[in-house]
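User: Assemble these into one structure.

Assistant: Restating your components, then the assembled model:
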Amino acid sequence: MRRLLYLLPFLLFIGVGIAFYLGFERDPRDIPSALIDKPAPTFDLPAVPGQPATGGLSSTKLAGDVTLVNVFASWCIPCKAEHPIITRLSREQGVTVFGINYKDKPEDALTWLSRNGNPYAAIGADQDGRVSIDWGVYGVPESYLIDRKGRIRFKHVGPLTPQVVEDQILPMIKHLRQG
Amino acid sequence: MKRLLLAALLALSSLSPALAVQPDEVLADPALETRARAISQELRCLVCQNQSIDDSNAPLARDLRLLVRDRLKAGDSDGKVMEFVTDRYGDYVLLRPPFKAITVVLWIGPFAVLLLGAVGTFLFLRGRRGVAAGADTAPLSADERRRLDALLRKED
């Protein structure tokens, strides 16, 4: 009994060690969204000036289908990296992708879209970033999966990678389309 | 010499930490501004995670400071403003985590460890005093005394 008592600090140490180890495995940038399974915020954003073809983006456009909302900006380098992946999602997988253009100069956004292609069904220009705050955005790029009822079901912070698309986005879309 | 002193003074003053809050953010109403500052010191900047939005120069921190001020101007209570931000960013945005089931260890843990240490120390010290006291109360037997004397004599 007494010997067990002496072992206690050691066991405590091991326990704390495991807790820290698991903690370090986590990405500190990956903050769980407070909005998962909640309805997407109500908003109405105008189109990027000079790019009115698809119109702006409002919450009414989100309901009805499973969609991906992608927050991007022309000044954001990882956005450029994920752009081909988003384009593929939109063109090859038939996913409706909406864009929120975060704190961008319209002319920069236009140049960026004409240079890299525009995979978005509609883009809302969030010039002051207020709508993005409603979405809980804290760094671009961020992507959200919205179900048919307009609820946020999945959030990814940082650029979408083929692995994230393969392992998380596509299975989730399949699941949501069935649901 | 005077010029040198002035230069040194200027160089030093540039080392003092710059305030993140910009003059154009400050509210006209001092009472409201005080509340805004107090709130923004409680909110974590999500970009540079160990700073409050009051400390941080990140653009998002500025946006959130302005948002806090807008909410206050609209007549929200401090609690309402906090709720507005946590609705969007979760409890993570609070520098002082709320007391909940999943944060119990966080709040109680340090005190539990302190208490455990105190109890351990108390038991250890009492045990040691017991040993010392034991030595005092048990006198040497006649035999032990003889052997000790023999040993001491050998030393000489």
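Residues 26 and 33 of chain B are 6 Å apart (CA to CA).
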